[in-house]
Write a structure and sequence with these properties.
about 375 residues; alpha/beta; 8-stranded mixed sheet; 9 helices; about 40% helix
């Protein structure tokens, strides 16, 4: 267990770092490639917190029992942060189930809290409604005013600058709407320089989710993402949620642009609006299974070429490199072994593996036709 900082009210922002390091001290130590998975930036999105915990548990219990997962733990460090907003999370349990922001003071005594996912320094936005302390998307009076966002960003900077860490992927879990989102969030007018790579992996994540339990996740730029307007709660009839759209100051954009994390994504988990933030407990395990399949796919994707190519390589290789990685993914899936216990989270049926391979072949043919 590690701490990536403290909250406004003094709680630790706890994280779990797992990975198996080589023991040969004669081998020069290169930067350790690291994947970060976060949840709970918004207090009411409980499913994101439980899902991070489920994925971490699945990795730990599969080590040494499943060849593929063991290889992923040897190839990368994994940092799982169940909640970046512990103060808001506690408040959502004790006082207001639908609380979104953190709990720090603002210029209005009766309107507490900042939206942590509007507080990061890249393309920070203070236009309405982000300038209103009573708004659920209040971004603060200046970049990184959000206490926990600043602590997390400082920790990430220190890891890369001083602790021999290279962050190769960042995955931020939210709810709801069932979408896989890639940069940029702040505007659709600017396309990320590695757009094709982002789209390729995002499509793979959505497919991995679909073959797990049959759920469909859309794939789009974060700037185009919108949460559905309404939801229903069992026995209570329609329930209206405010429309929250993507904007500037997001963790997704900051990690991608400022820390140069080439594979940065936000996944909005179940559901599509029937229950919204009040997702029944029966969805916890299947949502965790879907996220685990997606994150496992991401690890395989990165490990297929031992991490990330250089930016020059990305430009030179172009589409040919993308096609090579799809083919490598297919070979990895065929060569992988499964845990012999059929109910273990890592176990995937032969039919699902065949579906993943067929989907990859179809995507490869589609790209070649383009």
């Amino acid at each position: 267990m590690i701490s990536v900082g403290t909250s406004y009210e003094g709680r630790d922002i706890q994280a779990l770092r797992i990975g198996v390091h080589p023991t040969n001290s004669q081998v020069p130590s290169s930067p350790r490639e690291t994947i970060i998975v976060t949840g709970g930036s918004h207090a009411r999105e409980w499913i994101s917190t439980s899902t991070v915990n489920y994925v971490a548990y699945s990795f730990i219990t599969a080590y040494g029992r499943n060849k593929e997962i063991t290889k992923l733990l040897e190839g990368f460090d994994w940092i799982f942060i169940p909640t970046l907003n512990p103060d808001g999370y506690v408040y959502s349990w004790q006082t207001d189930r639908l609380w979104r922001k953190n709990r720090q003071e603002t210029s209005l005594r009766f309107c507490k809290g900042l939206d942590l996912d509007r507080s990061y320094g890249f393309e920070w936005d203070h236009e309405p409604p982000q300038d209103n302390p009573c708004s659920e998307s209040f971004s603060g009076e200046a970049p990184f005013e959000g206490f926990e966002a600043r602590r997390f960003a400082n920790w990430a900077r220190n890891e890369t600058a001083n602790n021999n860490v290279r962050i190769v992927a960042f995955l931020d879990l939210h709810s709801y709407s069932q979408q896989v989102l890639y940069p940029y969030s702040y505007s659709c007018a600017s396309a990320p320089p590695t757009l094709e790579n982002l789209e390729e992996l995002a499509l793979g994540l959505a497919k991995a989710i679909h073959v797990t339990n049959g759920e469909t996740y859309g794939v789009t730029s974060a700037c185009e993402a919108k949460v559905p307007l309404t939801s229903c709660s069992e026995g209570d009839g329609p329930r209206a949620w405010p429309l929250i759209e993507s904007g500037g100051g997001s963790a997704l954009d900051w990690f991608y642009h400022e820390l140069k994390v080439k594979y940065s994504f936000q996944i909005k988990l179940r559901d599509t609006g029937n229950y919204g933030f009040l997702l029944p407990a029966k969805n916890i395990v299947p949502t965790g299974q879907e996220a685990f399949s997606a994150i496992r796919y991401m690890g395989d994707f990165l490990l297929s070429n031992k991490g990330i190519e250089s930016e020059d390589d990305c430009i030179d290789k172009g589409l040919a490199s993308s096609e090579d990685r799809v083919e490598k993914d297919m070979r990895t899936q065929r060569a992988g072994s499964r845990v012999p216990i059929s109910r273990h989270p890592v176990d995937i049926s032969e039919e699902r593996e065949a579906s993943v391979e067929n989907n990859a072949q179809f995507e490869l043919r589609r790209r070649r036709r383009r």
